[in-house]
Amino acid sequence: MKFPKVYTLEQIAELISCKFVGDADFPIYGINEIHVVEPGDIVFVDHPKYYNKALESDATIVLINKRVECPEGKALLISDDPFRDFNKLTLHFKPFKSANVAIAVDANIGEGTVIQPNCFIGNNVSIGKNCVIHSNVSIYDDTVIGDNVTIHAGTVLGASAFYYKNRPEGYDQLISGGRVIIEDNVDIGALCTIDRGVTGDTTIGEGSKLDNQIQIGHDTLIGKKCLIASQTGIAGCVIVEDNVTIWGQVGVKSGITISEGTVLYAQSGLGHTTIGGKTYFGSPAKEARTFFKEMAYIKKIPEILEFIKKNSN
Question: What CATH number was assigned to the domain covering residues 2-93?
Answer without folding.
Answer: 3.40.1390.10
